[in-house]
Sequence to fold (190 residues):
Amino acid sequence: MAIRDTPGPRERLLQAAQSLTYSHGMGVGVDALLKTANVARRSLYEHFGGKDGLLTEVLKRTTEADEARYVETMDAAGTEPRERLLAVFDALGDVVTAPGFRGCRYLAADMTLSDPDHPGHAVTRAYRERVCGLLERELRRLGHPRPALGADQLLMLIDGAMAAGATRTGTDPAAAARELAAVVIDAKAT
Fold:
């Protein structure tokens, strides 16, 4: 029995789409995806039903990995909720300054996928809800007076830092977001 050293067509399509949609956006052409993956058009339709299905699977795959990174980042910061939340913004500084950073894949997808019923929107929406839930849980542990609103505010700061990191080179949006996050985190009941 031969052991396959290279990924099959499905995995090659996912890898190609993950890379190309990040570097070139969700509007990347089918021909470019097929050429990069070195697969026939038939493979795209057999495995994903078309480009929309492939894009949706890429978003699912990346949201799982990115959500796990949030958890890992917070867990590495210890058990104190405030430190766990601020660690997200510290890690964000590394993300937006990494070579090849092109912004938030999910913001880009939501801006590019013009059909409001595209299944990719459901994936990005669910991802944001899960991340918001992680943030809200820490704010609740901290005794924050409005944890749901605070989590929304923190997520907005994350989205803003990612957008600014891609569009405003030479700035430090993560540091600015971290400072504002501390204000949100430290809010007292009024």
